[in-house]
Amino acid sequence: MIPAAFDYHAPRSVADAIKLLGQLGPEAKLLAGGHSLLPMMKLRFAQPAHLVDLGRIAELRGISQVGNEIRIGAMTTEHELLSSKLLAEKAPLLVEGAGWIADPQVRYKGTIGGDISHGDPANDHPALMIALDASFVLTGPKGERVVKADGYFLGLYSTQLAADEILTQIRIPVPAAGSGWSYQKLKRKTGDFATAATAVMLQMKGKSVAKAAIGLTNAGPTVLKAREAEAYLAGKEINDASLNEAARLAMKICNPTPDQRGDADYKRAMCGEMTRRALQAAHARAKA
Predict the structure, then answer these.
(1) Which of 227, 185, 236, 188 is nearest to 208 (CA)?
(2) Can you give the residue ranges of every domain in the chain?
(3) I need a labelling partner for 247 at 20 to 30 A (CA). Which of 18, 29, 96, 276 fits?
(4) pLDDT, tens digit, for every residue of 132-189?
């Protein structure tokens, strides 16, 4: 199908983009990579009167380290995440997760900020952000505010991002030395959304877990943080018994939507299995 008519705007700075949002009002939509918005426009599920393209704003791209924090511009592409030496060294979970997203063609255009801002529980970055304890810089007419990933995602396609704000930057504390990581994703074919997926960051103290962070993809109306499983694992050794209980606690909070990928019971069981596999892989990579 062909989208409804719209006016196209291509600001060159964040300030200009925010000014445009204020002038154009609720009929304007931000365009990042376009992989979520454009298909909805073609189907007439979305009919914005104005598109504000962020693609020409250079300040929204780039990956750097400032102190003990990694900072990523919201318009940085998945391909740029995958090829970043800094991320491979300091935050390899993000590199591993980006490699599971769609296919190479999509990764050359799709952006980390677009994935996060869309608020789709099937998108991969929300769970990665939860596991990495990330924060988001939201910029609007009143300036900047920083919001934790844990609490940013409110529900299906719903986030804390206001209509007159732009997600401009992602901030990730550099994981502790020796941390283990894994993103385990079950999908039917290349390019598909997850049937279920789990992101894990794991710190060990001797043979016991010092700290675990677990984010679940496509397990409910928004990304889920498996708090009970995280709390249970603290002080425990990673073995069959602890893996089984952590998987059970992760499954306990799941409320997946039945679709062509499976019914709710199957998807819930696969969430448990992905949690088990992610913990095992993270444990194998962790150094006490």
Answers:
(1) 236
(2) 7-53, 62-172, 180-285
(3) 96
(4) 999 999 999 999 999 999 999 999 999 999 999 999 999 999 999 999 999 999 999 8
